[in-house]
Write a structure and sequence with these properties.
Strands 1-34-35-36-37 form a 5-stranded mixed sheet, with no helix packed on it. The longest helix is centred in the first third of the chain and has 11 residues. It contains 6 helices and 40 strands. It has 614 residues and is mainly beta. This is Methanol/ethanol family PQQ-dependent dehydrogenase.
Length: 614
């Protein structure tokens, strides 16, 4: 029988797992189980994006109306979502990365505003719009007040006093002159905050860094590529598919010193299991996009990392797309839930990768349990080899027709599905313990891909491929689907076609609803069991933000940022017209300009007369 983690049980296990931790960490655990607040970018440490609030439910969501709105003052892609702590909402923006604290008890009056002064030269080295995926919150703890933590575009990690907006400390996490930028949401565990780095299209060497909440000092740093010592990998103790990775597991898969400019960015989401004391995150594409220039598996790009939260030491690694030939970054979120596979319960990790395969792994051991396509259009590989006795166990079986390396440099490989932006990009899925289903916003997009030789120069694009994108052929004609997924069976339960990619993060609630947004700007609510559409409302701009919910004054509210942009909307956001610009996205999404325009707004919804679901 499937074992389900309830909200209360999860909170209890988290507290037990944190015995001896700082007061701040225990307070954050307590806060996580309060559905009136939204205290982490993805809702909880397990990345469920689920709420036990049910005053807005499938019976009354059709009566939902906008309650209030707030203009951010910025006209670029608005990814991520606000946080709600007590009676304060914290709202972030794209570059210049403004943070607002809004008073929910006083009509959203601005309590404070933080606007950093950044060098605009960082904008040209942000590959896919000037997005930012949100702020983190840390309760008051050992030597520091309550903090709101922001990863600025210029790689400055800044901790703000949550009550006043004053800078408590800042740390420099990278160098934009080398193409390093900050777009990720920081992540707080115990007395540390973790932050990754963007810049795979500039030959940046990816890494995850932990900083002290007390003073911003670096605690540990784990690179995605390179020597074991710099990767915080133990050749004998760190495993991959159950076996020790061995000495120089990364170095032996790169030619010469290529690993130094090898990519493996870490700009996606992080999750945490307090019982195992492990954090989980993914590394992105290897550099360059021309696979002929980097022979080998290019480890450990395209990899799920399970690391000790205190030391950063890798417990296990799993590379999903060895020697990536298509830019299928592996940075998407890891969702932690109990999943039954073939009648056996597992503490599982579920990951919807850009490469079009959904993976279910045992999060304690790294054992691969399920790997199935979550879009029928995926064609670059026939399957992931699940035969443990096979030499290719755990690897995708690549189709030569769609291999950009097999076809060679300066050859246009056509009809590859998915496109480089993947079957799902950074837009996070949701998990409901009520239905035991995962709700996944997807891209239904294919591409033509022509690699060419490129030289590395620090701070200059290191891409080496020309792309064009278009809807998956022989399908419904649109570029997206919103699906419900059974992670134990590896099956789509239901699927809703969308005209454009679904670039918004999903939200599931105990009210039997799943929310998501569309690139045209609609906020939609659907029945969690059937997918039946229950509500939609068009906001002022396309939605690439993530839906969240909270309670104030006894009422439930649903909030979402709208503001077209991101990779899919880069043509509108940056005013680009060349079809091949935006790494191929401009042509693919050209018709989006007929449906929406630039904006930057938070819209908050409610149902006037609320009663909890029965």
């Amino acid at each position: 029988m499937l074992k389900t983690i309830t909200k209360a049980a999860l909170a209890s296990s988290l507290l037990i797992g944190l015995s001896g931790a700082s007061w701040a960490a225990e307070s954050l655990q307590d806060m996580e189980k309060n559905p009136a607040e939204w205290v982490m970018p993805t809702g909880n440490y397990a990345n469920w994006r689920y709420s036990t609030l049910d005053k807005i439910n499938k019976d009354n969501v059709g009566q939902m109306v906008p309650a209030w709105s707030f203009s951010t003052g910025v006209l670029r892609g608005h990814e991520g979502n606000p946080l709600v702590i007590g009676d304060t909402m914290y709202v972030h923006t794209p570059f210049p990365n403004i943070v607002y604290a809004l008073d929910l008890k006083n009509d959203g009056v601005i309590k404070w505003k933080y606007e950093p002064k950044q060098n605009p030269d960082v904008i040209p080295v942000m590959c896919c719009d000037t997005v930012n995926r949100g702020v983190a919150y840390a309760p008051a703890g050992d030597g520091h007040p309550a903090l709101v933590i922001l990863d600025q575009a210029d790689t400055t990690l800044v901790a703000l006093n949550a009550d006043t907006g004053e800078v408590v400390w800042s740390a420099k996490n990278g160098d934009p002159t080398k193409g390093e930028t900050g777009t990720a949401a920081p992540y707080v565990v115990k007395d540390k905050v973790y932050v990754g780095i963007s810049g795979g299209e500039f030959g940046v060497r990816g890494r995850m860094t932990a900083y002290s909440l007390k003073d911003g000092k670096e605690v540990w740093k784990a690179y995605s590529t390179g020597p074991d010592k710099e990767m915080l990998v133990d050749p004998e103790k760190t495993t991959a598919l159950g076996k020790p990775v061995g000495k120089d597991s990364s170095l032996t898969t790169w030619q010469g010193d290529q690993w130094k400019i090898g990519g493996g960015g870490t700009w996606g989401w992080i999750s945490y299991d307090p019982e195992l004391n492990l954090i989980y995150y993914g590394s992105g594409n290897p550099s360059t996009w021309n696979p002929a220039q980097r022979p080998g598996d290019n480890k450990w790009s395209m990899t799920i990392n399970a690391r000790d939260a205190d030391t950063g030491e890798a417990k296990w690694l799993y590379q999903m797309t060895p020697h990536d030939e298509w830019d299928y970054d592996g940075v998407n979120e890891m969702i932690l839930a109990d999943v039954s596979v073939d009648g056996k319960d597992h503490k599982a990790l579920v990951h919807f990768d850009r490469n079009g395969f959904a993976y279910t792994l045992d999060r304690e051991t790294g054992e691969l349990l399920v790997a199935k396509k979550y879009d029928p259009a995926v064609n670059w590989a026939t399957k992931v080899d699940m035969d443990k006795s096979s030499k290719t166990y755990g690897r995708p079986l690549v189709v030569d027709k769609y291999s950009t390396e097999a076809n060679g440099e300066d050859t246009n490989t056509t009809g590859i599905c998915p496109a480089a932006l993947g079957t799902k990009d950074q837009q996070p899925a949701a998990y409901s313990p009520d239905t035991k289903l995962f709700y996944v916003p997807t891209n239904h997009v294919c591409m033509d891909y022509e690699p060419f030789r490129v030289a590395y120069t620090a701070g200059q694009p290191y891409v080496g491929a020309t792309l064009s994108m278009y809807p998956a052929p022989n399908s419904h004609g649109g570029m997206g689907n919103f699906i419900a997924w059974d992670a134990g069976k590896g099956e789509i339960v239901w699927s809703l076609p969308e005209q454009f990619s679904v670039w918004s993060g999903a939200l599931a609630t105990k009210g039997g609803i799943v929310f998501y947004g569309t690139l045209e700007g609609y906020l939609k609510a659907v029945d969690a069991k059937t997918g039946k559409e229950l509500y939609k409302y068009k906001t002022p701009s396309g939605i690439i933000g993530n839906v969240m919910t909270y309670e104030e004054g006894g009422k439930q509210y649903v909030g979402v940022l709208s503001g077209i942009g991101g990779w899919a909307g880069i043509g509108l956001a940056a005013g680009l017209t060349d079809p091949n610009a935006g790494l191929g996205a401009v042509g693919g999404y050209a018709s989006l300009s007929k449906y929406t325009a630039l904006g930057g707004q938070l819209t908050v919804f409610t149902v006037p007369d609320q009663t909890a679901s029965k």
